[in-house]
């Protein structure tokens, strides 16, 4: 069976307008997906854990960075002012307050987090929870330098 050949090889110039439109569209998408404004705050890498239940009582959040420094309401705070602010939060709340500790994965638990728990206990907070993030993958982590099996 023979098919008719009516296709011709294009020998003219390409129009640059569609390519420029695609380029500008790509630039707009990249700009919309980028962070143009730096959000102030502390970058904390939470440890991985399975999905855990939350709390129904009022919470107070204290962050601990990798150097063991404490942050309350996005500000670096020392031990004595933090104790006073936690006592004030307990007085203002109508129900028992739960302290949620957002500790960096690299923070030493023995120093900063345990001291923070004892400080919360002295301020009248009896429930202390460690914030985690949900595990992305449920399987075992691949060995270093090896690709996971398909």
**Low-confidence stretches at least 5 residues in length (pLDDT < 50)?**
none
Oligomer, anyone? single chain
Number of strands: 7
So what's the overall shape?
elongated
Number of helices: 3
Question: What's the average pLDDT?
Answer: 79
What does this structure look like?
With 150 residues, this protein is α/β, with parallel strands linked by helices. It has a domain at 48-134: Nucleotidyltransferase, domain 5. Helices cover 31% and strands 17% of the residues. Strands 4-3-2-5-6 form a 5-stranded mixed β-sheet, with helices on one face. Strands 1-7 form a two-stranded parallel ribbon. Strand 3 (70-72) and strand 4 (75-77) form a beta hairpin. Helix 2 crosses helix 3. The longest helix has 17 residues, at 17-33. The protein is elongated and about 90 Å long. The model has no long low-confidence stretch (mean pLDDT 79).
Topology, pairings included?
Blueprint: H1 17-33, E1 48-49, E2 59-64, E3 70-72, E4 75-77, H2 79-92, E5 98-103, H3 109-123, E6 127-130, E7 133-134
Parallel strand pairs: 1-7, 2-5, 5-6
Antiparallel strand pairs: 2-3, 3-4
Give me a quick take on this structure.
This protein has 150 residues and is of the alpha/beta class.
């Amino acid at each position: 069976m023979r098919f008719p050949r009516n296709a011709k090889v294009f020998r003219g110039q390409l129009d640059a307008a569609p390519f420029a439109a695609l380029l500008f569209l790509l630039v707009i998408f990249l700009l919309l997906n980028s962070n143009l404004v730096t959000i102030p705050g502390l970058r904390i890498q939470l440890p991985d854990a399975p999905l855990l239940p939350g709390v129904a009582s009022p919470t107070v959040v204290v962050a601990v960075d990798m150097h063991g420094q404490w942050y309350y309401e996005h500000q670096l705070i020392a031990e004595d002012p933090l104790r006073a602010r936690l006592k004030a939060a307990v007085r203002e709340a109508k129900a028992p307050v739960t302290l949620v500790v957002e500790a960096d994965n690299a923070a030493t638990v023995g120093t900063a987090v345990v001291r923070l728990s004892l400080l919360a206990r002295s301020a009248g907070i009896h429930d202390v929870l460690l914030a985690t993030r949900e595990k992305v993958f449920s399987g075992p982590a691949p060995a270093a330098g090896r690709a996971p099996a398909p």
